[in-house]
Amino acid sequence: MLLSRTANNLYWIGRYMERAEMTARLLEVGSRIALLPSAGHGYRNDWESILRASGTAEGFARKYGDPVQRNIESYLFFDRDNPSSVISCFERARENGRIVRTALTSQVWDALNSAFQELRALERQPRSTLELSEINEWTMRQTALLRGAIDATQLRGDGYDFLMLGYSLERGDNTARLLDVKYYVLLPKADYVGSGLDSYQWLLLLRALSAHRAFHWAYGGEITAAKVADFLILNRRCPRSLLTSVTLSADWLGRLAGTYGRRTPAQDAADALRDEVAGHSVEDIFDEGLHEFLSRFIVATGEIAAQVHDCYLSGEAR
Amino acid sequence: MAEEIFNEMYDGGTVRDIYASLEDWTTAMPGDLRQMKQAEAEALFRRIGITFAVYGEGGDPDRLIPFDMFPRVFSQDEWRRLERGIKQRARALNAFLVDVYGRGEIVRAGRVPGHLVYRNEAYEKAVVGFVPPKGVFSHIVGIDIVRTGPTDFLVLEDNCRTPSGVSYMLENREIMMRMFPELFRNARIEPVDAYPTLLRRTLASVAPERCEGEPTIAILTPGHFNSAYYEHSFLADQMGVELVEGPDLFVEAGRLWMRTTEGPKRLDVLYRRIDDGFLDPLCFRPDSMLGVAGVMDVYRSGGVTIASAPGAGVADDKAVYTYVPEMIRFYLGEEPILQNVPTWQCARPDDLGYVLDNLGELVVKEVHGSGGYGMLVGPKSTAEQIASFADLLRAHPENYIAQPTLALSTCPSFVAEGVAPRHVDLRPYCLVGDKIELVPGGLTRVALREGSLVVNSSQGGGVKDTWVLAE
Fold this sequence. Notes:
heterodimer, A: 318 residues, mainly alpha, 15 helices, 74% helix, B: 471 residues, alpha+beta, Rossmann fold, 3 domains, 5-stranded mixed sheet, 31% helix
């Protein structure tokens, strides 16, 4: 048994930390793509695709107007006006953690709190002394430390299930968004697909997900759109694939249903999405359109999240 | 301030036995090591997250209370006397509360003036005639004690509602043991870490009679923006109970419930860390977002125990304070072991006259104030400050009491230049349930500014670990 509010805080720690990681990974992709000769619309367009994928394009446009790399970096990393910036996510995750200190082990709290304190110190340093790739790596190191502390110390009770549910829901959503960047960057020109530039962009994407070596183990040979889509959407061995993420979400919800002795609509929704994704082939997805498929997945994930809220986090369920 | 100031480390010119090991420790510690340790302590506090936001100051919400590494020491004899005096006082205060919400014998007997009780803002008409389980209103009594000489301990004030700071008592010890384990190997220091267990037992012992089996206990906090949130969360964690906010609770079928992921769960004992006025918007402030609608009805029908009980505040008012020795005599038939500080009630014309004539030597406090706000320390104030305070006094004399400026004892403390005496006070936390318990120790607050007598953390005070030596 957990206070609904506590479950809510734990769930959001998972979501925010995963989101912080994905924002850093997006920034990494963006900064690498910006170093390439443009795919057609100038580098501005590439950065715009990063903002769009992170769902922050409108907020950025309101604040800065033109997408200048330096502003984008600030906006995605240090800007508290951007709810998905790395600092916003760390701050909120830590605030959620502070509220539920009693539900976290001291190592988990320590990881959350130390990360936040370090980030505040980074924030005070002159921006010119900070390398983007260093702060991105720093972010991934911190999120890994926290996951490690959770894995090593947190009691496998319902609190853990909510924490992990936050992670898995957010991860599925984020992988879908990262893949979608490629949609915006890639021109649908036949002669371009399969070109050197095309496969280099896919490689960058895999690198940003720390997945390019895993990809080579799993597939080998040329990097093609079909292989990458298969890897990041359908491959159960890929830890960030959509199918892995939604399967995990369904598992956590199944565990909760078991613990509480009560099946919920949230679990039904997660099972349904898992089965649907599992029923697709890469050809099905490309026929539907990658962007369309990913958009549908993002919406369905949002619906599961809404069900989780109604069934467990609102405190209204009887 | 004519009296000599008592430095607790010395007896005349020689170091007292109980401080001998600390004297060796400081002499042997090079300055750079001390600075390193001080930085380490600060880092530990920050990592644990023990921070304190000061109301209305803005600034850093993660401010630390300065921690002074030099411990304060009590001998077993000193402590035994303090312990008896504190428990005596806690018993009398609770007897007084049961009495004034019942027949009011002490008022009928003319020992305490009726208007101080019944016209007191903290007197809760909503609980007249109600006796809480085990006859306890104040379950955690924080008694602030100052020392003016080797055997002179005085009670400065009582805190019967929700005294804070106990987490510092526990964490200060934790951090000292981590940083200086050798000190604890060489001196036999009574442990304080039983406090959370005792608090839990105390709260369980006052569960409503209707509660069968193990009672469910929760701490009610105003939320994580509150300056004492760390403490609320720390205590909930140490006791293994839920930390709840008003919106987590609701009243149904005459009981109090928590909203959980498995549906409603009944609560039996609520240790609230919010003021009476915010407890129940139906009973007190209708605009309160912190409390629970209808909880007072549940409380009065014996469905839940609230600790401290609503209405307990009437016993720790600064004007009622002067009558605590009288309460001890009246209810317990004993003489007070710990004395009060002589106090002038500005509401009395004679007293007011004396206070106005001697403002430069007195400390004047608001009757309902706390935290070192709204007070005047005569000897430390300018003529202008004194004059403007005199105007306040003349306008509302009933809001103020005055006390002599005490020659508060000092304890050696680490300061920039090395070690120097600084003024200290002591807040022990007495637990009242079916038994009365007191862990050997408390929170020592220290005025870190040279010459300052104000130990409140909101006014630049710090804290120290407090040792009671075993025999």
